[in-house]
Amino acid sequence: MAMSDLQNISQRSAGESFHIDTIVRKLHEARRTWRTSTQRVQEAGAREFPARAALEIVLNHLSGALFPMRLGPPDLRQESEDIYVAHALDVALNALLGQVYLELSLSTRKDREADFSRRHQHARELVGLFAQKLPEIRRLVDTDVLAAYRGDPAAGSVDEVLLCYPGVRAVLVHRIAHELYQLGLPLISRMLAELSHEQTGIDIHPGARIGESFFIDHGTGVVIGETTVIGSRVRLYQAVTLGAKRFKAGAGGELVKGEPRHPRVEDDVVIYAGATVLGLITIGRGAVIGGNVWVTQDVPAGAHVTQAHVQQATKS
Amino acid sequence: MAMSDLQNISQRSAGESFHIDTIVRKLHEARRTWRTSTQRVQEAGAREFPARAALEIVLNHLSGALFPMRLGPPDLRQESEDIYVAHALDVALNALLGQVYLELSLSTRKDREADFSRRHQHARELVGLFAQKLPEIRRLVDTDVLAAYRGDPAAGSVDEVLLCYPGVRAVLVHRIAHELYQLGLPLISRMLAELSHEQTGIDIHPGARIGESFFIDHGTGVVIGETTVIGSRVRLYQAVTLGAKRFKAGAGGELVKGEPRHPRVEDDVVIYAGATVLGLITIGRGAVIGGNVWVTQDVPAGAHVTQAHVQQATKS
Amino acid sequence: MAMSDLQNISQRSAGESFHIDTIVRKLHEARRTWRTSTQRVQEAGAREFPARAALEIVLNHLSGALFPMRLGPPDLRQESEDIYVAHALDVALNALLGQVYLELSLSTRKDREADFSRRHQHARELVGLFAQKLPEIRRLVDTDVLAAYRGDPAAGSVDEVLLCYPGVRAVLVHRIAHELYQLGLPLISRMLAELSHEQTGIDIHPGARIGESFFIDHGTGVVIGETTVIGSRVRLYQAVTLGAKRFKAGAGGELVKGEPRHPRVEDDVVIYAGATVLGLITIGRGAVIGGNVWVTQDVPAGAHVTQAHVQQATKS
Amino acid sequence: MAMSDLQNISQRSAGESFHIDTIVRKLHEARRTWRTSTQRVQEAGAREFPARAALEIVLNHLSGALFPMRLGPPDLRQESEDIYVAHALDVALNALLGQVYLELSLSTRKDREADFSRRHQHARELVGLFAQKLPEIRRLVDTDVLAAYRGDPAAGSVDEVLLCYPGVRAVLVHRIAHELYQLGLPLISRMLAELSHEQTGIDIHPGARIGESFFIDHGTGVVIGETTVIGSRVRLYQAVTLGAKRFKAGAGGELVKGEPRHPRVEDDVVIYAGATVLGLITIGRGAVIGGNVWVTQDVPAGAHVTQAHVQQATKS
Amino acid sequence: MAMSDLQNISQRSAGESFHIDTIVRKLHEARRTWRTSTQRVQEAGAREFPARAALEIVLNHLSGALFPMRLGPPDLRQESEDIYVAHALDVALNALLGQVYLELSLSTRKDREADFSRRHQHARELVGLFAQKLPEIRRLVDTDVLAAYRGDPAAGSVDEVLLCYPGVRAVLVHRIAHELYQLGLPLISRMLAELSHEQTGIDIHPGARIGESFFIDHGTGVVIGETTVIGSRVRLYQAVTLGAKRFKAGAGGELVKGEPRHPRVEDDVVIYAGATVLGLITIGRGAVIGGNVWVTQDVPAGAHVTQAHVQQATKS
Amino acid sequence: MAMSDLQNISQRSAGESFHIDTIVRKLHEARRTWRTSTQRVQEAGAREFPARAALEIVLNHLSGALFPMRLGPPDLRQESEDIYVAHALDVALNALLGQVYLELSLSTRKDREADFSRRHQHARELVGLFAQKLPEIRRLVDTDVLAAYRGDPAAGSVDEVLLCYPGVRAVLVHRIAHELYQLGLPLISRMLAELSHEQTGIDIHPGARIGESFFIDHGTGVVIGETTVIGSRVRLYQAVTLGAKRFKAGAGGELVKGEPRHPRVEDDVVIYAGATVLGLITIGRGAVIGGNVWVTQDVPAGAHVTQAHVQQATKS
Known about the structure:
The structure is a homohexamer. Chain A is α/β, with parallel strands linked by helices. The first copy, chain A, has two domains: 50-201, serine acetyltransferase, domain 1; 208-248 and 257-316, 3 Solenoid (UDP N-Acetylglucosamine Acyltransferase, domain 1). Chain A is built from eleven helices and 15 strands. Chain A has a five-stranded parallel β-sheet. In chain A, helix 8 packs antiparallel against helix 10 (166-182). The longest helix of chain A is centred in the first third of the chain and has 27 residues, at 81-107. The first copy, chain A, starts with a helix and ends with a strand. Chains in contact: A-B, A-C, A-D, A-E, A-F, B-C, B-D, B-E, B-F, C-D, C-E, C-F, D-E, D-F, E-F. At the C-F interface, helix 6 of C face helix 6 of F. Strand 14 of chain D pairs antiparallel with strand 15 (311-315) of chain E, so a sheet runs across the interface. Chains A, B, C, D, E, F: Keywords: Acyltransferase, Amino-acid biosynthesis, Transferase. Chains A, B, C, D, E, F: One of its GO terms (molecular function) is acyltransferase activity.
């Protein structure tokens, strides 16, 4: 292609108004710079990533398979439940299979030569293991729904809870994402968690371990960190943070990843809105943490921690 | 159908990889267990529920009918406004009619034999009553838009307010949902409220009673409980909670539902970001509640309540 | 059209059930009242506004042009990157051109007679200026991605950061919106910011000036006001507010718009979850603001400000 | 609603430009006139009709259930075939059930009081009977596919035949539509036939009875009338008409509907492009009808009928 | 932009595999050549054309406005008919207005300087005139539907005719397109006609003049030329051609456009399948033209013209 | 999975109403029977086929790349033509690459072990070769458009021709499909041809060789066979068949595939509506074949062949 022709084209094309050719070139350089500079931390290069759209399909079909009459197609009749559930599982698991394969390809990048079909076999095994956990996930979410119904005087029925409560939605997605996290799929599980975060405003890291009958009311602004451990029958309100206090840095100043650094919350604890609980501490069984309280040390079982309510009221 | 055939099929089908048949059976059992165990609280069984997708249609058309040039179709010309409004109302009210019928069917489940057409007649009456409220809803939201424009120095025009402010969106949806709540439709009104909560991060229970010229700035994390009563010209900022302090339990330990348990906020009150106001208390006319303040007792009219600002500043 | 005919029609049409004709008339009157009463503040009348759907197209194509392999089409191959980038830019800039023209038409309403093509020329110049900023926007977001990867022990790779972190999404949109704000397009830039606010729960006014390597973790509930100035390498957590303390009112009681009223946050500052920083104050370089702290006065460089942790713990 | 208001509205609305109010009134009158004048022939009034969109769903899912790997979803894997087939049948048959109920409601209009659930029961029985015919339909279409492959030297594989040949598509739809016609559902079966007619240009009335191994090549313009009977291994080319010669009129001049009036085409007949075969005549076994021939009388078995080829060739 | 950069880009981009840059350049040259060479016949250059998608919207809404309960939305209730009709007209006429403006811009290209708003005014007048014809169009199509019901023994009801018969669909579209043709909009009317041709296989030039009670049975392959004139109560079958015999050429050998060159078909004529009627001849009132007959001369009123049926039948 | 459980499920599921389990089993058996019986002719088994939806994407983007201002996006501006063309080519060629790979996999099935990447390399070469032909395809279609404009007195402009004429659409698709056929891709090319056949009613086998300036008017029902050869400046009308007379059968009675068996039509021939030309004969340069004529022998150059017009006209 002669240069003069190409020049003609770029001058005639929108380049004329907006200099698109120049911007394309500069953006190209920016990508090259970035790829060079991050070679150490980002080794994946240009390979394909799990796709958000595919994971939405996985999530919708799994939700339908778990709760066909409430989260499945609106015109489903009860006598077709099992046929629908089988189909929804088939679609969800096959779609998940493709995404798992992509994540495995990323994480095993170095031995790219590794047997193509061995990786497929691995993906298949992981999805199979995940599939076996679905009945237990359903059982756990049933306890969550009941906990919400019992814990909120505004809840009119268990159906209202399942249809309306963002906290229940977030926990349902978390229980799915957590199983995938356990199977060694941090990226997919994190992407699923963010789909739920975006919709509900509740940010639960897929690494968190959460017992049964868990209820988050209202939920906007809740953050639950990666190494948090939560017992049974725990109740949280909006804007509660279960976070890390400080991060451990390695010799070179780089953060050490994956260390336990979040709270252990024992059974039957209640944490009210806006409370912040930080660090590898324990909130003992049955404790109650008041709203907006800041907690960075162990709380004994059964304790009630509240803010001191130091306020100034002045007539204006 | 011979068993051996079916076994063949299930072995050949995806069952082979993922044992879908086993999972289907276990999920079936889980649903049976759940349905048996919740018979007392959840009496609705397998009947059809109001559908989120249908309510989105209702909401979009009502928004367009109320504000045709701003929330209606982008190419609407002013001379077609009334024709569009009539059509949008017709679509919205007929779609709502179907959903109201479904909710009535749920709530009157016991006398299932009840006259089919009587229930339709009831649904029609409710939608008719709701429709009569629309001009008043428009008038109220006009006061809200003006309050936002006047209350925010960053607001460039009333149009910017209506197009961009999540607080105005949330109040618009609430004023619609509240009318339906008043008419005895708790499920539909709650589903509408959650559509708005998801989008704006503002969680207003449809039971809350809110006066005119109401403005929520930024909004993420605001929670307003079921029995809250708010006067005119009230202004809230993000992450404000108007919640319940504790729940009343019945003899059997079950929560008493529907009791008044949330604050009364009188005219001209301002509540700054992150403040938590709990319980059946009164915030008197013109009071100002500072950011992050925790309030569980009455505040007199005109008072300014602020946090004590107990802080430690240390050089690192 | 004879009145009797029209009456027939309206009686026969849905008016019969829901009195749509009456509601249409009342809503018409409400609009007339509103338009009359707001003539002073809202001068735009019935003219066309920038459209949310068009701005979503702009944003998606710009995101793809900036990060083709991560935010572009899922099946893009690296060898097609530049062709895709050129096309995405072409689509985005032309769509933006139309919206800019609409905003210019609104703001120059008074001299409606002004040369039609002069306004087009102006729009074209603004979009051209904006386009030149895109490589710099890419460079800045690269620093943000790296800051997130380095600042969060839960981040597994820079790709995970770009694909999953709402804070990075919010900053990417802000850097685009801010350039448009700088060019005198407050409405479009605000609408873009609200698209991101809705998705991420992070509310950054497009007027805010933010340095490189900026990281917001979790993010839900963060609010950053119009005249905020943020240095380099600053880190925020969820629910942090950088807001105004009080608004300046003019002689007539109307708020003065656009005045500097938000914090200056210098380089290397960290602000933990739920902290509220208000007013035209300075948080000095390297300062650390603890969670839930309320700050309304200057904080010296290097200081650590934490809540006093006044709590009452009682055994229940 | 006061007349003057309504008049205002209609003058202000688009009526001003296009007099929409007048047109609405005139169209209303046109409908009233029509409904009055056709009361005898059209008794259905305003009740709901089977919907084209619903029948497209039925057809797509039945096609997928019959040929899952060729006409089902593109990414179906063979090991999921049965699960997909069960789901596709479930969707198709339930959607069909709704449409059958609508057609039954139309045809039993006079005894509108008839038991609502009796009609549902009837619809359910009809769909059940139809469902039982599906394996036989699959077997017949398999013979058609093979006939096409064997009869066309341009056919490269049986897969190409199933994927590409409009004649096969038309026969597949016909075999489905014919079963529904046999069950007393003339409207649904005709609507299905027209979906195929539109796509393929082949117009087969659902009443026609067609034996196995039937092949239509190219197909555009083929017309096969309601009472046609076609044997096995018959082959047609494009633009062949199997039509009625004349219609029988009753005493009052009205056409007698449903009388046998189309050809009987025996086994192994071939009819070439453009031939027209009219009336209740018999084309004997193994006969060959040449292109563009006009046949209105019986053709004996084994005969070859060709046009006399009377042509004039002149040098220009 | 330096040439070497651009060369780099094009080599790195898909150019490497498919030499896209070369193809782009060659296609660019092809367009330049074409535009130069056709300057005389194609004067429109790069200006915008009426869009098929917009015309589909016009057609769908007009169909719905004319037959709301049959061709309008499937869930329309009779009591909402007029509101729906008004809205459908409003949408259709405004969409048409935009397309008419585009066609007028094309045809008045030479005086491009002509008053922008004068052309808008003209478009508005044309659409207003068209709108006034809609009640008459409805009346005519009513006669067509009745003619189909009466003329086809296979027609079970007038509703089946309106829902299923491609001939009725084609005539409905023609009656709309013809009015636009009469108003001087040849391009829009032709595009509408082709939308119908594609769906029904019936090709009626919008210039053809057709009387009431017109019925085309089956229809595939029917062609009706631009200057054809058809009386009342005419019936055609599939593959009938009403065409031109030869074209008149000007001095330079170019065809003279728009000359009368097609048949006049008087009242009550029937033309059977495959008949070809060519030239500016008259088929007299009540004549019957047999199938596959070739007619190029006047046919007297009441005559029956049939093919001589010269055939050879041989035993194979 | 215990049999009794599965039996329970199938009885409870829709099986109860429609016996879906039985139908699934019978359809499964039907597929097994078919796959066994056709093993010889259909060796492809369960592997993936080129997909219609993907080919529609290919076709739409190629059409846009060839005629950006007429067949590209409706709002394309001329100054963005080349950028759009590059992008459309990139999308089309990459999508085509995937489909070509699938077809190659089918046809090389026996040596399944063959190098995976060798097949990819082959697909890439074929698409590269095809891409080089696009400028020539554009040039040819330009001659076709001009031929249509010049040959039809009803054609108002070359733009009308490109936007409206189904004959031009069919030839455009054919010229694309033919190149792919030449490259050894019979299935993809046939599927493309059928996309066009469905839309236009014109059935051109991709194997046909067609010279420049080709025009088909009206077009419905035209059939052009696989081994047809057509010269330059040929004109056809609707329902013309260029077909095979008889098929050559092998020893075993099976048709011999791919033999030359269709007409050679030399330059400047005109064939009028409904004419049927069959067999490996030659229609000499400049010949004119009249409407409905049946031709099975060579026609000398310049000859005019017309039907003898044997008709009987009787007064009724």
